Structures are given as structure tokens and as C-alpha cells.
Amino acid sequence: MSAVKSQNSVAEKIVFKYLQSRHIYFQKHYSKIIGKPDITIPSKKKAIFIDGDYWHGRFPEKVTNTFFWKNKISNNVARDKLVNKTLAGDGWQVLRVWGSDITRKNTQTKVMSQIEEFLISR
Question: pLDDT (tens digit, 9 = 90+) per residue, 27-40?
Fold first, then answer.
């Protein structure tokens, strides 16, 4: 599990490159707010999290080594909800997207448009 990166995943790199090509200014891994979002525009109070499917509970039925990993993943999901609630309470808009939807060609265009629209809207 030590090979799993928490920053600059394949999905993140795809989004970073896309946003740069669209001339959308953003900050990566913004550590000044809770959750350390993958993409932020602090002046607009917008934050995007690119969640890995396994780590954030998208396919809980695929979890093995039951007790430890199910507990770990359920704690991650609970933490994600707390982060969303805290940021919203502080006036931030939050968007969460699945990393696999970015790396999968048949869903990539839709997710990239969603991300771009979220960042450029007021």
C-alpha cells in the first residue's frame, strides 16, 4: 500500500493538464483549509477533491481483509462528509469527482466539463 500516492495521481495529472490548457488558474493541494483539496481557487472559495474509488468507498463490496479495510474506508467516507460540511460552513463550494471517471475515456469528457463549469461559474 505504500506505493499508493496521495498526490499527483494519474487522474490529477490529467485534470491539471486540462485546466492549464484551458488557461484556468488554480492551486494544487491547498493546505490552508481542511482536507487539502486537490484543486482550489481560493479567491472564489472553490475546492475539488479527486477521490480514489477504493479509498473513498465507491465499491465497498470489493473490500477484502474485512475488518481493517472496511473500518478504514468507512472512516475515510465519514471524514469526507465532515470535510464537505466544514468547508460549506466556511463558505466554500466543494466538488468531489471519482478518479476512475477521469481516467476512463467514456466518462472523461463529461467529468472534465463538470470540473471546468464548476471552477468558472460564480
Answer: 999 999 999 999 99
Domain of residue 105, CATH code: 3.40.960.10
For residues 106-119, average pLDDT: 97
b/e per residue 2-33 (b: at least 16 CB within 10 A)? eeeeeeebebbebbbebbeeeeeebeeebeeb
Q: Checking phi first, is residue 84 left (phi over 0); if not, alpha (psi -120 to 50) or beta?
A: alpha
Indicate the pTM of the whole model: 0.88
Cα–Cα distance, 111 to 118 (Å, whole number): 10
Asked if the structure places residue 67 within a domain, the reply is yes
Q: Which domain holds residue 47?
A: 10-120
Average pLDDT over residues 58-75: 74
Query: What is the DSSP secondary structure assignment for residue 13, as one 8-state letter?
Result: H
